[in-house]
């Protein structure tokens, strides 16, 4: 194996998908602890506080605790190199969240054991499904009362349409939580409370039949055997191929707060999840072990560091090797750039990596020339596919405070849309400008950046749009018919694409029924 192939084989690049409050931040801390990236878990959130911010936008970023250093975390674990990509969870949820999932090879789904599958879990799973991303599941908060685990697995299968294969099964919960039973390996992994912030050697009891197991489970023993019988009869056995096809998810139980079960999840990612995969470009499929460098940009974020007022473009490396000072071809603008100062995200700040391989993420300083979806290569003309726009779920009409600034407004919105900060729609029937977003914070960000960077002040108004769909139709005549009949709801988006702005869900289904030759797409590829 070449050095490069060995480096690729070591890599695992994944993201955590979860509904807010399920425990993503807590798990992230414990994962970093596993990688010994931080000495004491609990520092992920606090690291942001001592930064200085100068603009409103930066101030907002600071307050909400969004920082580029926690967007991508790289740490070593068991001879592997783990890249964990953060997907913002709360109000800072945005299109970036969705697009980050196009840059990973697997995902960890975290559910709150007391709540089960929640709306954001469903939305994020839908995005994972676009590329059949393998999903590992973790049911969290076993130190509290949780719902019946069998019911939780049923819910995963029914709502998320994926087979659930329990790898471990919980023994009790809340005050009775005694650990988990590893189904295939017939061993009990014992929960010892009070070690949430450190790595300990976890006690293991071999054999459920052993005297030790009986003693550990005590009153729970008989009931647990009965439940286990049910589980073994009703549940799927884990099948790695089905997992890799995105059809089955291995399920683990634990408590992130108690730092229990997180290591099992990380082990499963190392053992079962794919190493960096090949990627489709319009021209051909690119293999990660190819010698020449390629990568694509999936996210652009304003930099928090006041010394660098530019923005950072996050690039996923698809093949070859990044080396400091190398030359890259920015394919869309056909320019060669010398990249001397790409950011790497090794989580221990002492070590600065000077090289990176397929699966790794690097950050490029962007002075406005880089857009979401841009491909970089070592000269080859190549365009990676699969970095889509997602139909927005929230809409606002933009009202300009100073009518004389309409040109600046349009230019600003155009550029912010190209960068992926928002989506912009121009309805055919009026001079309105409508913004679309998937997270409500996107609107705040856009308003504050318009003010800061384009000197335009705007306000937002409610608008009667439920969702947007990109229109495609091969039959030119039918398309013209459609455009005439649907005129009231037709718009052109920031990229010049024909869009249908549906006022209600019912309206959209009616239109889809009425126009079978017209395709109403919920995602659109860049370029
Ligand atoms: P996020 O919104 O998904 O990032 O969730 P957080 O990690 O911030 O967790 C949300 C809340 O749940 C916090 O108060 C955590 O302390 C708590 N939490 C997370 N994991 C556990 C757990 O295993 N047990 C209990 N009891 N609380 C937890």
Explain what you see:
With 527 residues, the protein is of the alpha+beta class. The protein has 14 helices and 31 strands. The strands form seven sheets. The protein has an eight-stranded antiparallel beta sheet with strand order 26-23-25-24-28-29-27-30. A seven-stranded mixed beta sheet has the order 2-3-1-4-5-11-6, sandwiched between helices. A six-stranded antiparallel beta sheet has the order 18-17-21-14-15-20. Helix 11 packs across helix 12 (441-454). The model is unreliable at 38-57 (pLDDT under 50).
Determine the structural class based on helices, strands and strand pairing: alpha+beta
Task: Give average pLDDT, whole number.
Answer: 89
Molecules bound to protein: guanosine-5'-diphosphate
| Secondary structure: number of strands | 31
What radius of gyration results from the CA coordinates?
24 Å
How many distinct helices?
14
Distance between the termini: 37 Å
Task: Walk across the major sheet and give the strand order.
Answer: 26-23-25-24-28-29-27-30
Enumerate the spans where pLDDT stays under 50 for 5 or more consecutive residues.
Answer: 38-57
How much helix, percentage-wise, in residues?
25-40%
Largest sheet: 8 strands, antiparallel
> What portion of residues belong to β-strands?
25-35%
- Globular, elongated, flat, extended or rod-shaped: what is the shape? globular
Organism: Azotobacter bryophylli
Pfam family, one: GTP_EFTU
Family: Belongs to the TRAFAC class translation factor GTPase superfamily. Classic translation factor GTPase family. PrfC subfamily.
Subcellular location: Cytoplasm
């Amino acid at each position: 194996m070449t050095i490069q192939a060995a480096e690729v084989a070591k890599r695992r690049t994944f993201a955590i998908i979860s509904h807010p409050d399920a425990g993503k931040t807590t798990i992230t801390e414990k994962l970093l602890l596993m990688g010994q990236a931080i000495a004491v878990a609990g520092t992920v959130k606090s690291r942001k506080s001592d930064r200085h911010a100068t603009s409103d936008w930066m101030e907002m970023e600071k307050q909400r605790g969004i920082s580029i250093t926690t967007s991508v975390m790289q740490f070593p674990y068991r001879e592997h190199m783990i890249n964990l990509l953060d997907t913002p969870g709360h109000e800072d949820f945005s299109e970036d969240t969705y697009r980050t999932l196009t840059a990973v090879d697997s995902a960890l789904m975290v559910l709150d054991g007391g709540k089960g599958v929640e709306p954001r879990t469903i939305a994020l799973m839908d995005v994972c499904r676009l590329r059949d991303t393998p999903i590992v599941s973790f049911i969290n908060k076993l130190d509290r009362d949780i719902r019946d685990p069998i019911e939780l697995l049923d819910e995963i299968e029914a709502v998320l349409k994926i087979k659930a294969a329990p790898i471990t099964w919980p023994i009790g919960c809340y005050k009775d939580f005694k650990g988990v039973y590893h189904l295939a390996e017939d061993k009990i992994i014992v929960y010892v409370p009070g070690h949430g912030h450190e790595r300990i050697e976890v006690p293991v009891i071999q054999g459920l039949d052993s005297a030790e197991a009986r003693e550990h489970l005590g009153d729970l023993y008989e009931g647990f055997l009965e439940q286990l019988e049910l589980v073994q009869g009703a549940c799927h056995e884990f099948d790695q191929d089905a997992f890799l096809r995105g059809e089955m998810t291995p399920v683990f139980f634990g408590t992130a707060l108690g730092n229990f079960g997180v290591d099992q999840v990380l082990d499963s990612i190392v053992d079962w999840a794919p190493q960096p995969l090949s990627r489709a470009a319009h021209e051909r499929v690119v293999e990660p072990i190819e010698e020449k460098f390629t990568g694509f940009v999936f996210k652009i974020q304003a930099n928090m560091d006041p010394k660098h007022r530019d923005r950072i473009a996050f690039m996923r490396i698809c093949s070859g090797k990044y080396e400091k000072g190398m030359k890259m071809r920015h394919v869309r603008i056909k320019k060669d750039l010398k990249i001397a100062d790409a950011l790497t995200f090794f989580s221990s700040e002492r070590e600065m990596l000077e090289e990176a391989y397929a699966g790794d993420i690097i950050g490029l300083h962007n002075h406005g020339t880089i857009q979401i979806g841009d491909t970089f290569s070592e000269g080859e003309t190549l365009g990676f596919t699969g970095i889509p726009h997602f139909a927005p779920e929230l809409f606002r009409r933009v009202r300009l405070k100073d009518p004389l600034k309409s040109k600046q407004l349009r230019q600003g919105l155009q550029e912010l849309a190209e960068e992926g900060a928002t989506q912009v729609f121009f309805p055919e029937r009026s001079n309105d400008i409508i913004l679309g977003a998937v997270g409500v914070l996107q609107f705040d960000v856009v308003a504050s950046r318009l003010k800061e960077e384009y000197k335009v002040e705007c306000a937002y108004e409610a608008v009667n749009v439920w969702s947007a769909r990109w229109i495609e139709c091969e039959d030119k005549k039918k398309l013209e018919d459609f455009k005439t009949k649907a005129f009231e709801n037709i718009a052109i988006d920031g990229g010049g694409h024909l869009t249908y702005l549906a006022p209600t869900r019912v309206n959209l289904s009616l239109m889809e029924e009425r126009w079978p030759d017209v395709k109403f797409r919920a995602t659109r590829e860049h370029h």
